[in-house]
Amino acid sequence: MKLVPLDKNESYWLLDEELIDYARAFEREALATYPSYDELRATIATYAGVPPEMVLATPGSDAAIEHLARLYAGNGKRTVLPVPTFYGYETILGRVGAELRPVTYDMDDDEFVFPVEGTIEALADASVIFLCQPNNPLGCPIPDAAIDTIVAAVHGTDTVLVSDEAYFEFSGRTMLPFLSALPNLVIVRTFSKGFGVPGARVGYVIAAPERIRALEAQLLMSPIAHVSSVAVQALLAHADEIEARRELVIVERDRFSEALAAIPGMVVYPSETNFVLVRVPNAREARDALLAEGVRVALGEPMTRFPDAKRLLADTLRIAVPSPEDRIKVELTFNHSLQKSKSVVTYAP
Questions:
Q1: Best exposed site among 30, 262, 343, 349 by fewest CB in 10 Å?
Q2: Measured between alpha carbons, how far is 304 from 90 in angstroms, rounded to an integer?
Q3: Helix, strand, coil percentages, rounded to 5, for the chain
C-alpha cells in the first residue's frame, strides 16, 4: 500500500522531476571534499535580500532554534512562548533549562486569536520570546497589529525576539522590515517547507552581524553536508520555477479546505501554510481510519504539554496538503469515517 505522508508538514509533491534533477546534479567534489559555506551564504543572502554577514546557514531550522535557545533561554532565563506552537520548542527549551512563560491562544467564533495582552505582560524581564509566524499547528498568522505591539514592547530592551518563519514562502509574512531598527530581532527560516527538501536539512538565520557571529560560534565545524549545500544552491537558482510549483500547492490547499469544510461535522481552520488544521468528532478514530488506508495525519492535542493549549487542540488533526492525486482518497476516507459519528465537536474552553 502506498503511504501518503501528511503528518509532518512535508511538501512531498512540491518538486517535479526536473527540479529534483537540478538538486541532485552535483560534481564529485561535493562528496570528496569538505564544504565551504561562503557561496551558500552569499546565495541565501541574495535570495533573502540582506548582506551575507547577516546570514548563517544551519543544519535545518531545528538546529538554529536549539542554539538560539542555548544562547538566550538556557539556564533558567525567562522565555515567552505563545502556545500552541511548533512542538520542538517545548522539547528544546526544556532541554536547555529555560524558565518558560507559556501564553495560550484564545478562540472566538471558531477563529484562533493571538494573546496580545498576555504576551505583553509575560515579556516583563524576559530574556527571549519565540514567535511562530504563521503558527504551527494552527496555520493562522499573527496579525500585523499584534506584531507592531510586540515590536514596540521589546524595542530598546535586551529581550531577544525570534521570528520563526518556516512557512514564509507560503504566507509572505516576515519581520525582516523591522530588522534595521530592531537589533534584538532574529529571523529563522528553512528550505524544508517552501522548497520541499526537508531531507536536505538546511535552514538559515537572519540577524545583526554580532548575533550571527555569536550563533556561528555554537555550531560544529562543517555542519551541513556538502551535497545538501549544493542542492539548495541549485534550487535557489531556479527559485521562480519553485515559486510556480508552490502556487499549485496553495491552490490545492484551498481546494482541499473547501472539500473538507463540506463534510458534515468537520471544522476547517484557515491556513497560510502547507497544511490545514481541522476539528472532527473522534479525532483519534479518524486518524486511525486514515492510517488504515495508508494516509498519515497528526493528532493536534499531543503537540503540547500545556493543559490550556491541549484543550485548544482537542479533537484536531493537522494535515499536510495532499497532491491532487491523493486528495480524493483523503476526502473519501474522511467522509466514510465521519458518517459513523453523529456529533459535531466545537472548542469548549
A1: 349
A2: 7
A3: 45, 20, 40
Length of the chain: 349
Q: Decide if 319 contacts 297 (C-beta within 8 A).
A: yes
Q: Which CATH architecture has domain 4-13+240-337?
A: Alpha-Beta Complex (3.90)
CA atoms within 13 A on the CB side of 100: 19
Give the whole-angstrom CA distance, residue 284 versus residue 313. 12
Q: Which CATH architecture has domain 23-238?
A: 3-Layer(aba) Sandwich (3.40)
For the whole model, what pTM was predicted?
0.94
Cα 303 to Cα 132: distance, rounded to the nearest angstrom: 14
Which three three-digit cell numbers place residue 8? Answer: 509532518
Name the residue type at position 341: S
Position 340 scores a pLDDT of 59
Write down the domain spans for the chain: 4-13+240-337, 23-238
Q: What are the cell numbers at 197?
A: 527538501
**Tens-digit pLDDT profile for residues 137-166:** 999 999 999 999 999 999 999 999 999 999
Segment 168-190, tens digit of pLDDT: 999 999 999 999 999 999 999 99
